[in-house]
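Hello,

Our lab assistant flagged a job as stuck in the queue for most of the afternoon. It eventually completed. Since we weren't sure the result was trustworthy after the delay, we are filing this so someone can double-check. Below is the sequence as submitted and the structure that was eventually returned. Let us know if re-running is recommended.
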Amino acid sequence: MQKSSKPASRGKTKAPAAIRGSVLTLETPASQLVLARCGDVWTFAHLGAKTARPADFAALVKARQCGDSANGNPTLETYPAFGSTRPSGRESAAERRGALQVRHADGDVNVDWKCLGVAEIPADDGATEVAITLADKAHPSFRAVQHFRAYADCDVFETWVELSHAESAPVALSRMDSFYFDASRLAERFHFLSLAGNWANEANVSETEVLRGQKVSIGATSGVRDAWENNPAFFLSIGDRATEESGRVFAGALCWSGAWHATAEHGYTHELRLSAGAANLCGPYVLDPGKTLPLPKFVFCLSEAGKGPASRALHRWARLHRLPHPGNRDILLNSWEGAYMDFTEKTLTDMMDGTKELGGELFVLDDGWFGRGKYARDNDTVGLGDWFVHEGKLPRGMAWLAEEARKRGLKFGLWFEPEMANTESELVSAHPDWCLQSLAGRPLRLGRGGTQIVLDLCNPAVQDAVFDMVDRVIRDTKGLAYIKWDANCDVNNVGSVYLGPEKQGNLWFDYTRGVYALFARLRAAHPEIVFQACSSGGAHAEYGFLEHADEFWGSDDTCAQQRVFIQWGENQFYPACATAAHVTAVPNHQTGRTASLKFRFDVAMSGRLGFELHPKNMTPEDVAFAKRGVETYKRIRPVVQGGDLYRLASPYEGDHAALAYVSPDRKRAVAFVYGLGRRCNDGSVSPLRIPGLDPARRYRVEEINLEKEGEAPALGALQGARLGGDAIAASGIPFALGAGDRSAVIELVADNRG
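-- returned structure --
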């Protein structure tokens, strides 16, 4: 793992941009975004394949008919606001709602934009950024600066908005979306793909048609666990439902970890409206004079060749420009399922010995290491928020334990839950007003263990206190390399003593900003630390947290069979290097299912491989296999964690799943195949057609990670064969996958002999 932050050298070529009169053009390697000036505002004219004459789109969009005879043609504004009027002076339904709704101190609830100017903003990482400044005609100090950014090394655009004003009194914002896209007659059918789930059942792929005259809306109201029931990312097929390799697909992801919403609307006259942003759940956001409010980023791209390219574009953007640390992720062992909260120093050093023997690189101590006195953390009802070492369990302290890891050649990591506390803790006993709570003094609604609450991270004093405690532990531990950041409670108590009665509507937004501020301080003080985003499993599997964390915990369900589905969903939008996947004991602690150690390994190897068990409970045969598996993973790790993902067979459509990763230089690839209860003599599985290979190269094909040395490979006579990339893409590699939960890992390496 490289320890530096994002290097400036990642992006060497600057993405082109052009501002020519009434036409603004941004380009990525394969895509083009064209905006056109239409009277006082800017409008979307084109998003798609590059053209040599972008001005043509500006002319066409002005003449486009929407078929709405009652209201005329829409303006397709890039940031429409409630109450704005089109150049004709008439309103459209979109503009009555828009991306922004405000109430000024004088009671005015309308916004009518006038563009004050467009400027190119200096940007690093090979990006080009432009900013459009809009001002309300009646309240000229109320402004929105809308940013668009394009990258030269990935087919992705970013956009966000900054709101500000200099009025004499606050402005109330009841809607403040980051993104709003309006287009007419792109197609007459649209299909919306999103992820839905809950604890231990995250990221189920759901796809539905957005019927004419209807809308599909997703969102999260937890305030904390924002990627559970819905994930803030989606695909929209424009026209017929897209496949992996065909169809027109818009991909979007809101980079936000709090309450949010996203909507796709198919108008009756075939308008398409997409919107996404932070959600206000208990009243408008109050923006004071002189303050600037940056809204969350929205990242998007358009694929003309199916969902696969859209996924790969987002993954590449994340690896190059979003995740804090580049490079390969360490193989770790987390103590949770191997010990839970019942451990001693010897328990942990024994686990370290096992980690070292298996070939692991990092040992992570999970929950249960903190608290003191009557609040010592021996169960989940006490101690949370008191970040002091539990002397009963660790009498020689955390520095001693970290040194024990170093003696074994291992890095050391710790679990924290900085956003939360138990009511049974020193922290809450001393500062009961530091909890989020109703201003009316209602009884606290309590979460996990019957005592858990969410701290008021809107309050800078609370941020300071939590930072000081966590920072002290990090400094005392000496060389802490990894932090698992957990969050196991919703905003159950709606209210902030710090914000006061007039700003309770700010709670949902300011809480998340407070989390980010705390995270940013810790990262600035300790830039070498790798963070994992965890929230009751996969509730922080989203790009808001992944600006600060390097990876996410996909689910508390560690059952390998279920993880095939969970990781399939999460990797629609998020890269393998950020997907923590652990080998655990059987019967599985969540589902009670059993699976061979090979199957468990093969599933975890398609993400960031780790362990969550006590190695002393493994048989000698399992230890031997695990050691071979770890060495195999270390060899293929650069391909899995840094390669392009190709989804070959969906677990939702048959009795097996298959996927492949291809290195950026196309010299290496690794394919994974998982049988999901295949029945005996029920037909053969489809050959592995891997489209990302170099058609001009030949590849040596070999099944790896065999269960037993000398075992007959699933490839049969093709084991070790040299095959052309063109033949593999066209005909595929045949293999035999037996009945039951069976799996295979197939490695392809370019043959230098040509």
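-- support follow-up --
The delay was a queue issue, not a problem with the job. The result is valid. The radius of gyration is 27 Å. The longest strand covers residues 171-184.
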